[in-house]
Amino acid sequence: MVNQAQFEQVRSGKGFIAALDQSGGSTPKALALYGINEDAYTNDDEMFALMHEMRSRIVNAPSFTGEKIVGAILFEMTMDREIGGKPAAQALWEDHHVVPFLKVDKGLMDAKNGVQLMKPIDGLDALLARAVKAGMFGTKMRSVIGAANAEGIEAIVAQQFEVGAQILDAGLVPILEPEITISIPDKAEAEQLLLAALIKHLDALPADSHVMLKLTLPEVANTYAPIVAHPRVLRVVALSGGYSRDEAIARLAKNKGVIASFSRALTEGLSAQQSDADFNATIAATIDAVYQASIA
């Protein structure tokens, strides 16, 4: 059963969703950008412990509250750990009024028809049951579009909605993330194909179902306005997708009704070597800039 207070925070709260869900493949890079090189750990357990310290430091920053942050997306290992002495999801909601989401995908398949579908998510029902028990509100899963290929884009959207239905049945709200690679030459055409496929599948959802969409910032501002206004869509969020923080924020501000869900752009400028005062000042400035673009 969806938590109604969290539902209202996601639907009408002002701010953005913090993406704190770096997984095994992206963790070394995220740590390196944070000033922790690979010689600082000798195995995955040590690596993930350092990553959790970084995430906990972000969450515990004074500016990390529901006033400007609607929700946060967590990696599975983060859900299983504590922040501030409480289970992570519980700490986010009770201490910070930030709605918790869980990354559930297991990576990408090889490219076909210009896209990369999600790998099968083995044990998804069990993971969803754990997520519900842990107090998660929703989930997130990512696949990637690398060309304006109608067949490939339809396959990606169909897969996202198929797995999304399983997540809805478990009592969670899915964030569907069909990311478009920002560097492809036919990005604008891919966005039009994606828009049409999304509307088709949204129209087919039951009247009482709500999903969220996480989309690459488009070439033409407000391309996804019909998605933002769709009655089955709880919220549309944008990924930074490799854009610099400044460019991502500038693009976001032009898309009415879309809020941010940034990962790398959120942590840009943070360092393990910073004093708490400098760290908190840096994250506060970033949070405020992303917040202002999200409410523009």
Describe, in plain words, how this protein is organized in 3D.
With about 300 residues, the chain is α/β, with parallel strands linked by helices. It has a single domain (about 5-295), classed as Aldolase class I (TIM Barrel, Alpha-Beta Barrel), CATH 3.20.20. About 45% of the residues lie in helices and about 20% in strands. The protein has twelve helices and eleven strands. Strands 1, 2, 5, 6, 7, 8, 9, 10 and 11 form a nine-stranded mixed β-sheet that branches. The chain has a two-stranded antiparallel ribbon with strand order 3-4. Strand 7, helix 7 and strand 8 form a beta-alpha-beta unit. Helix 7 (about 150-170) crosses helix 8 and helix 10 runs parallel beside helix 12 (about 275-295). The longest helix is centred in the middle third of the chain and has 20 residues, at about 150-170. The chain is globular, with a radius of gyration of 18 Å. The protein starts with a helix and ends with a helix.
Summary of the model, kept short:
This protein has a single domain (4-294), classed as Aldolase class I (TIM Barrel, Alpha-Beta Barrel), CATH 3.20.20.70. It is 44% helix and 18% strand. The protein is built from twelve helices and eleven strands.
